[in-house]
Design brief:
The protein has about 170 residues and is an alpha+beta fold. It has helices at about 120-125, 130-140, 145-150, 160-170; strands at about 60-65, 65-75, 75-80, 80-85, 95, 100-105, 110-115. A seven-stranded antiparallel beta sheet has the order 4-3-2-1-7-6-5, with no helix packed on it. A hairpin with a 2-residue loop joins strand 2 (about 65-75) and strand 3. The radius of gyration is 33 Å and the shape is elongated.
Length: about 170
């Protein structure tokens, strides 16, 4: 039978520490408690930042339900500070017949609608929230639609489960 010697924990050392020994008492460490000052409250963020500037040429594009305020620079569409390109071939987009956006690259595909009337942003549902629609219209100088000027006269049905609530009570 072959015997192996077991390694003792005292044989291991940490970097910079002396070997462990059972004869000396452990050192006491003191903890200092520091209080952290609470951070000052942050200013509340603005819901919508001014996008349209009067000295620039702007329009609205509706790309398959995604509505964007776009800037026209040398008759090229720019969105979010970059030139808009085709999602299929990365070709440059061009406006044809004053209302249609097509790819001028290899695929020549239809991309969406264009309008130089900035109120189309609200008309095409660029903003769906009633509150945000009012804010965007105010900041950007857009005209609210008639439906946005009327107060909501009903409580919205927030859940499909409400339809089943009556069925559960009658059973």
């Amino acid at each position: 039978m072959r015997r192996t010697e077991q390694t003792k924990l005292s044989e291991f050392t940490e970097l910079g520490d002396a070997p462990l020994s059972t004869s000396s008492p452990p050192e006491e460490t003191t903890c200092s408690i520091t209080t952290v000052e609470p951070a000052p409250p942050r200013p509340k963020g603005q819901m919508w930042h001014k996008t349209i500037h009067a000295d620039e040429e702007w329009g609205v594009c509706n790309f398959d339900g995604t509505v964007l305020l776009v800037r026209l620079i040398d008759n090229k569409i720019h969105a979010h500070g970059e030139e808009a390109v085709c999602k299929w071939c990365s070709g440059v987009l061009e406006i044809r017949e004053e209302t249609k956006v097509f790819c001028s690259g290899a695929c020549k595909r239809y991309q969406g609608e264009f309008s130089d009337d900035l109120n189309s942003f609200l008309h095409w549902e660029g903003v769906k929230s009633y509150t945000l629609r009012k804010m965007v219209a105010e900041v950007e100088g857009l005209d609210l639609e008639a439906r946005d000027l009327k107060p909501i006269s009903y409580a919205p049905n927030w859940s499909i489960l409400y339809e089943y609530a009556d069925d559960m009570v009658t059973e």
